[in-house]
Amino acid sequence: MKILIFPDAATASAETARRILATLAAQPCAVLGLATGGTMKPVYEALRTALGQSPATFTSFNLDEYVGLPSTHPQSYAYYMKTHLFDAVALPGAQAHLPRGDAPDPAAEATRYEAAIAAAGGIDLQLLGLGANGHIGFNEPTSSLASRTRIKTLTHKTVTDNARYFGPDEVVPRLAITMGIGTILDSRAILLLATGAGKRDAVARMIEGSISAACPATALQLHANVTVLIDEAAAANLKLRDYYETVHPGGADEIYT
Ligand code: PGA
């Protein structure tokens, strides 16, 4: 793992966006794996500014979607992506993939989605956030580290974390379709962005903890091309922080990984 520690969230987000743009410059038709959540909003803002109404040539597969929400629902991840990225960069609909939350048979939809990723040639660059409970995508603790795209029941913690995005009268979904951990590990390269003190425990477990389904993000230790971008607040509990900062001062990319 390459651990890059930045002074603040804005710098970490800007560097994440820069790396995505560098991938697209080198490979305009890259297959991107995309994530949602509050952490990613500044990343997409930077991509919107840089890419403009091009139209976009990449193909994307999002990590997950709530079961039961149509793409028109303001809390659906399809709606999030349309609002924060897809419309602004004129990404053709056929290139923008998310699991269909309102599919009549969600299990069949998960299988279809996994096959669609493979048919596109797999993911070149996967963007990940990190749940405070160590989840990646909606792979909650105890998810199989070999899992593929499927339906997952969200933990109480995730449901309550996400409740702030829903209205007081709205039911927060308890099921999601998510890429599996095995699906994520098949990506050719991974960027994980985590910022803020609320992530410091999960960040420390992910980087320095034992590999365990109890903290799904620890599975990333098995991947050969993972870059973790964090701010100082999220780095606060890392025991080897001095070492990471020696290798990559201020988040700079050095030749030694
Ligand atoms: P957040 O979500 O960016 O809203 O904190 C991250 C995640 O749960 O993956």
Let me know the average pLDDT.
Answer: 96
Give the overall form. Answer: globular
Give, in order, the helices and strands. Answer: EHEHEEHEHEEHEHEHEH
Portion in beta strands: 15-25%
Largest sheet: 7 strands, parallel
Give the strand order of the largest sheet, numbering strands 1, 2, ... along the chain.
1-10-9-6-2-3-5
Instruction: Report helical residue fraction.
Output: 25-40%
| Parts with pLDDT < 50 across at least 5 consecutive residues | none
What structural class results from the helix and strand content?
Answer: alpha/beta
Helix tally equals 8
Number of strand segments: 10
Which ligands does the model contain, each kind named once? 2-phosphoglycolic acid
The N- and C-terminal alpha carbons lie at a distance of 7 Å
Q: What value does the Rg take, in angstroms?
A: 17 Å
